[in-house]
Amino acid sequence: MARIGLLSMSDGRAFVHNDVSDFIAAGAAALAGALREAGHEVVTAEIVWTNELATSQARWLADQRVDLTIFHYAVWAFPHFTMLAAAATPGPLLLLGGLDPVQPGMVGMLAGGGALDQIGRRHTRAWGDIADPATRERILVRVHAAAATESLRGSTFGRIGGRPMGMYTAVANTDQWMRTFGIDVEEIDQWEIVRRSETVDAGRVTQARLWLEKSSAGVHYNGTSLTPELLERQIRSYYAMRELIDEWNLDFSGIKGQPELTNHFATMDIAEAFLNDPYDWEGPKPTHVTSTESDMDAALTMQLLKGLSGTPVLFADVRHYHADKDVWDLCNSGQHATWFAARSDDPLENLAKTHFYPEVFFFPAGGAAVHHIAAPGSFTLARLTRLDGRYRMQVMRGEFESYDAATNEEMARMSTFEWPHAFARLHVEAGDFLNRFGANHIHAIPGEYVAELRAVCDLLGIDYDGFGDAA
Fold it and tell me: Residue 95: which H helix or E strand, with range?
């Protein structure tokens, strides 16, 4: 849900304003009603017809901490009202012009927008009646993008550990993050997970283990790299992370894991999967975006995608290309939330398709790997990457596919069977993808969000880089 400010502009001549004010108010009411019907909160200011109101009402809306301010032009409006209001409005702007043939709202929007162009004030425009689906969609795309981007500002990312395994693409400049996104980074040592895990209540841990054993498709103990004790150590790590999140007020986070924890303590697969899930064994909870390998750009991408979709976000390596099927295996140790197994609101439906296998030789400390095949459907895939120090959002469309059990297993065993897999048919030629994509990690949400990601890039002042039919 977004919080939207609505500021309607009028003619600066009193006798004209008095004549058109009811017309403006009716248009504003219809706009506000449509936005509220779509699930958003709308804060409406007084109609602006003097320079004093332009400034005072814009300042009042700014005080309401709105995600997006809409300047509404149902009639001709003096352009300096737009300039004064914009000067008092720090956040994203959308200019909406009416197309009524009698009242020149479109003219008012063009005059105000042109003035903003002259001073370099970023904004976007929409036009038409809110009852028109095309107009409504254009507005809602910007609303969703503004809510996602503005939610970043003032947030804190918790980086648990440092750079993993020499990965440049996992580490970002904290100054750049604050300047571009408004995000602070809190550095926390991985020892905090080890230390805090020892103090977790044993009863909670045992109940969690029993729930996983009962609810999942199987916990496949082998007596060495996966034992009840190791699984409980992973569960304790999850509780340690929840404690760190609450204590440090972390909005999203990343765990280094490799190689220290995965060599000497336990893998973070359970913690990462269930932090990204909208539930755990104790019931529903807010999803907390957590990236493996403390990948900062991964977590930031995921936080944006979660803000757009309201769903968990997939994290995966681009692990293998099945050239015979033109399908990619998106696979990474434990990082897929169990929600992707069935994409159900009922955790038991997802867990029924999820196995917990002993970890593989990459991680000698052992523990459970979270295995499932992602449920089929259409997805938007994206990743924030950097080209010569400048951020870009790389975007593509695709479908996740699932096959018969034998084919799924055969394909999964071609990479690392024990980990979760999403078999993705991307709308991009394989050579183009491999030549241009700027990371080994990729992220996905179900549904169509290409237009919203274009708007996100515009609002953040970063580059949009689309692949295939998302170009």
Answer: strand 93-97
DSSP 110-171: HHHHHHHHHTT---EEEES-TTSHHHHHHHHHHHHHHHHHHTTTT-EEEEESS--TT-GGG-
Q: Tens digits of per-residue pLDDT, 43-79?
A: 999 999 999 999 999 999 999 999 999 999 999 999 9
CA dihedral (236, 239, 243, 244) positive or negative: positive
Residues 130/31, Cβ–Cβ less than 8 Å: yes
Q: How many residues does the chain have?
A: 471
Is the CB of residue 341 less than 8 Å from the CB of residue 373? yes
pTM of the model: 0.95
Rounded Cα–Cα distance for residues 6 and 111 (Å): 19
Residue with tokens 């440092």: 162
Residues of the chain above pLDDT 70, percent: 100
Give the model confidence (pLDDT) of 223-251 as tens digits.
Answer: 999 999 999 999 999 999 999 999 999 99
**Alpha-carbon gap, residue 433 to 412, rounded angstroms:** 21
Which position has the token pair 């959308």?
94
Taken in order 462, 385, 437, 274, is the CA torsion positive or negative? Answer: negative
Burial state string for 364-381 with b = 16 or more CB within 10 A and e = fewer than 16: ebbbbbbbbbbbeeebbb
Positive or negative: CA dihedral 198, 199, 202, 206: negative
Give the C-alpha separation, 352 to 314, whole Å: 19
